[in-house]
Design a protein that fits this description.
By secondary structure, the chain is of the alpha/beta class. It folds into two domains: 165 residues, 3-Layer(aba) Sandwich (Rossmann fold), CATH 3.40.50.620; 89 residues, HUPs (Rossmann fold, 3-Layer(aba) Sandwich). The chain contains eight helices and eleven strands. It has a nine-stranded mixed sheet, sandwiched between helices. A two-stranded antiparallel ribbon has the order 3-4.
Length: 255
């Protein structure tokens, strides 16, 4: 990070990483991430996992005679991805003048690309757009968001259309154990930066969803439940991601 840039703090971690694929939810995520990066005085990295002849940006597509990891070089697709993410980067600079914005275009699936980018720059958090069509039981579908939440070692913020620019409090799920403290610290930092109310709420899905209706951010913990339990019964974090009325930050437990 450049010490000359006013949006970078000395000793700060590597800023924010946001996934971008040109969709409406991705644009919402980019706008939310630009605002948050400006409030954090840190750089923003836009990652575009572009389509290839066999592998889509959001999931592998099988083809006869080829494994799911097969990737073909397609110059036109790469060029289109570079143009799309460049437009998004310019929008970030327009919204937040002086913000340090960089881009990265990679071939393949979005989840590993975002995880690798976040680890490479030691990102403070990952931001992704989430389509309303993903509001289905996790046992029936998969998504970049749910994969990231359970595979990455840092907070993930999921943003849907119409959720950017909301006012209201920051809601954080709490209980009587120290497990919720990372989420509380994350929520407190956000509330301080955005000069808004911090509202702790008992950590149950129904109450959190009700409170999210007038909130600008909902913060929950990822308790690392085993995969079978999540598939059969869901979790607070999964329910929040699928049904909350505001952006959702899922904060992992310390390793």
């Amino acid at each position: 990070m450049s010490a000359a840039n006013p949006f970078v703090e000395v000793g700060h971690r590597g800023g924010l990483v946001v996934g971008f694929d040109g969709s409406d939810p991705a644009w919402e995520a980019v706008r939310w991430a630009a605002d948050e990066a400006a409030h954090r005085f840190c750089p923003l990295l836009l990652v575009h996992a572009h389509l290839t002849s066999v592998t889509s940006a959001w999931g592998a597509v099988a083809a006869p005679g080829w494994g799911p990891a097969a990737v073909f070089d397609d110059t036109s697709l790469v060029r289109q991805a570079e143009e799309n993410v460049a437009v998004a980067a310019e929008e970030c600079r327009r919204l937040e003048p002086g913000l340090e914005v960089d881009v990265k275009v990679v071939g393949g699936r979005a989840t590993p690309a975002l995880i690798e980018a976040a680890r490479t720059v030691d990102a403070e958090l990952l931001v992704v757009g989430m389509s309303h069509q993903w509001a289905l039981p996790r046992a029936l579908i998969g998504s970049t968001v749910t994969s990231l939440v359970h595979d990455v070692d840092r907070p993930v913020v999921a943003v849907r259309g119409g959720q950017v620019g909301r006012s209201g409090p920051v809601i954080v799920g709490v209980d009587d154990s120290p497990d919720s403290m990372p989420a509380v610290r994350f929520a407190a930092g956000y509330a301080k930066r955005h000069a808004c109310e911090l509202r702790p709420v008992r950590d149950d899905a129904k109450t959190l969803l009700e409170q999210s209706e007038d909130a600008q951010l909902l913060v929950v913990s990822d308790r690392g439940d085993n995969a079978v339990h999540r598939a059969l019964f869901g979790s607070v974090s999964h329910t929040a991601l699928n049904h909350a009325s505001c952006p959702v930050a899922v904060v992992p437990m310390p390793c």
